[in-house]
């Protein structure tokens, strides 16, 4: 009977239909990835991508991005100007573009042969997530304007068309918007990230100039990005400070109706950096174009190694990681109909892209190496060195990484969980015996494992591989995770063997805790990057304070901003407890604030831009003190950090 009653309660009135741009405001993360700084900056990128599409169509050579004093952002281009004529829907085409999902010129190949704004939702999504937006269009000798508030138009149309506000001989589109503070965690654009993204865009479009202005500072910052060397200059920038083994190699070609550009250079370091772009959009998770490049390049080098006698008949081929040891490469393609996994376009899914990049690489790389034997020898030599080290370490790593019982670690400190279902398990890395003891008592033993570590682990950024492997704390973590680790000369990492769905760093909310957290993230980023890219790494957010009012409910406060709000909103006296470290919490407090999945706060770790991530990691963990101090001072006031 209970089931029947519930069925009767479920009727047509329970079906919620989200119209227009309502779905975007209801689920913003589906469209821009997050509501943190990364998602906030993504609003700028969506509008910039539309302007870049005008450049790809041969109609724009200048874009200006301005961070305004009032917190808004302005993107202006000298393209054709957005269409303002009457659309079949009975209103100006511009109004349709900014108020309708999946509307735009990207669906008509006559307007854009290739486009980064594939889904046609960029402009409308930005509009939906903005408190206010103003669009100015120069076209047909006139200037037109339209304005919106939270996605809804406020400008009155004249017979369905935009009002003319002036005359001009210029063409182009200018979009000014201010993010909606009710949607985003904070609404302050991060200039360094925006500049890096714009600089990358300039590298990918050597005929384009992008001006950046930050008017929020006392002394406004103005910088112009123009990179006539294209992706060759991009590779040089990525390898800045490293010892290059040869000049940058560049080739391009077309196959399967896909335009392919590749630039690569080897450096004298054990690392690999291969970045993929499709229609100027960075694909953080790679995709078919990267697979095609890696597979064919490995085949080419192995063929040469056998022809030149570097590999004998009895020798096995170099592995892909062997061949790419020391490589920095940029693979950029132009595709007329790209398919991505998700609106944020992190992974390309077109099979013809793999074939195209493979074909062009097979032809052009061979043509280059046939004429440049010294460069070929440098590449093969790098692969030989990687293979030799890999084979030497194989036995030691086998003993280190395998044949471990599920509940055992080399230090005997891992308090494992009862479940062996990795999808349900999580492991907390806790600094110190005191906090580790509390965590072991507080946890849910069925699915939560606790791994205490002693103090600050080895800084792996500048350490040799033998020191990394010999470090007791690092060995303990590798054993516990169960999936091995990666390095520049080989890859014994297997994400399918990971024993825990979540790896949670739980450190004190102070300078030492932040340092420990950074050391661990550096380890994961350099030697187990798939942990981050596959979304398994988190940072626990323990509270800084506990407010205990004389009347009313006690409340945990997670940062100074929360304390300021509490002081402002709470009436009456209260006692404030300050937690200097996790060890000061009793097991019950630790459970309800940091361990309980129903109540805790976790920060997910992701990599949005590899250039920013690599440069920041090197800056924070390198030996140059002055720029590190400058970075810390510049970011010390950030209430939230998107890592």
SSE topology:
Elements: H1 2-9, H2 22-26, H3 29-32, H4 37-56, E1 62-67, E2 73-77, H5 93-99, H6 122-128, E3 130-139, E4 142-149, E5 152-153, E6 164-167, E7 172-179, H7 191-204, E8 209-214, E9 221-225, H8 231-238, E10 249-255, E11 258-266, E12 273-278, E13 281-282, H9 288-307, H10 320-323, E14 327-334, H11 351-371, H12 373-401, E15 426-431, H13 433-442, E16 448-453, H14 465-470, H15 472-481, E17 486-487, E18 490-491, E19 502-506, H16 511-527, H17 529-533, E20 537-540, E21 545-549, E22 555-557, H18 560-569, E23 574-578, H19 587-595, E24 602-604, H20 610-621, H21 625-635
Parallel strand pairs: 1-8, 12-14, 15-16, 15-19, 19-20
Antiparallel strand pairs: 1-2, 2-7, 3-4, 3-7, 4-5, 4-6, 8-9, 10-11, 11-14, 12-13, 17-18, 20-24, 21-22, 21-23
